[in-house]
């Protein structure tokens, strides 16, 4: 899949005719529902998703089959490290899993933030799907991964597993047609 060349790129093709594009505020409600339907994400308020897509649309992405949102990635730039893209949530609808949509969205989003050279995400130790997604991203981009505990149960609450920070990079920008 070709990633958008600039943050202003409107849409790119995804697996199976899915459109991957920048979200708008109206997508917030569908993404809130999708997050809840995953039954694994910490679901933010509906209002939070609306604000996210108002304020952080340039660092987020949605996947649509027709008009239906079937996936999203929310992200932002670290204020103290603007070359780092932090991925907050990744969601793919159950019926769209297993076709590479998560990887296509992640690649598309990173490609749409042209000056990013690192990617960060936090993952709980039991989330094997996210661990595989971000490990594969690092492998595709020939980048190192450093793992460290960012927040433990003493901060998150005893019922919440620790959030492990995956810091991936530096990610070298290269021509996707270059096999070398």
Structural description of this entry:
There is one protein chain. The chain is of the alpha+beta class and 180 residues long. It folds into 2 domains: 1-73 and 91-113, Gcn5-related N-acetyltransferase (GNAT) (Aminopeptidase), CATH 3.40.630; 117-173, no CATH class. The protein contains 5 helices and 8 strands. The protein has helices spanning 27-38, 46-55, 101-111, 128-140, 153-156, and strands at residues 11-13, 19-21, 61-65, 68-78, 81-92, 118-123, 145-151, 163-168. It has an 8-stranded mixed β-sheet with strand order 1-2-3-4-5-6-8-7. It is globular, with a radius of gyration of 16 Å. It starts with 10 loop residues before the first strand and ends in a 12-residue tail after the last strand. Residues 1-10 have low confidence and may be disordered.
- CATH architecture assignment of the largest domain: 3-Layer(aba) Sandwich
Number of helices: 5
Mean pLDDT score: 89
Order of helices and strands: EEHHEEEHEHEHE
Structural class: alpha+beta
The proportion of residues in beta strands is 25-35%
- The spatial strand order of the largest sheet comes to 1-2-3-4-5-6-8-7
Number of domains: 2
Query: Which fold does the CATH topology of the largest domain refer to?
Result: Aminopeptidase
**What is the CATH class name of the largest domain?**
Alpha Beta
Unreliable stretches: 1-10
Task: Calculate the terminal CA-CA distance, rounded to whole Å.
Answer: 18 Å
Helix coverage percent: 25-40%
CATH superfamily of the largest domain: Gcn5-related N-acetyltransferase (GNAT)
């Amino acid at each position: 899949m070709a990633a958008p060349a600039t943050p202003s790129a409107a849409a790119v093709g995804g697996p199976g005719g899915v459109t991957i594009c920048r979200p708008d505020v109206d997508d917030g409600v569908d993404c809130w529902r999708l997050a809840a339907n995953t039954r694994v994400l910490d679901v933010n308020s509906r209002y939070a998703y609306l604000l996210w897509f108002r304020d952080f649309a340039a660092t987020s992405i949605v996947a649509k089959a027709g008009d239906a949102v079937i996936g999203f990635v929310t992200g932002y730039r670290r204020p103290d490290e603007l070359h780092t893209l932090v991925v907050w949530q990744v969601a793919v609808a159950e019926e769209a899993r297993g076709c590479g949509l998560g990887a296509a969205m992640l690649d598309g989003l990173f490609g749409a933030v042209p000056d990013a050279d690192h990617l960060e995400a936090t993952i709980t130790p039991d989330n094997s799907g996210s661990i595989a997604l971000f490990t594969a991203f690092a492998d595709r981009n020939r980048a190192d991964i450093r793992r460290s505990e960012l927040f433990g149960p003493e901060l998150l609450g005893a019922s919440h597993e620790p959030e492990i920070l995956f810091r991936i990079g530096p990610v070298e920008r290269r021509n996707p047609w270059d096999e070398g």
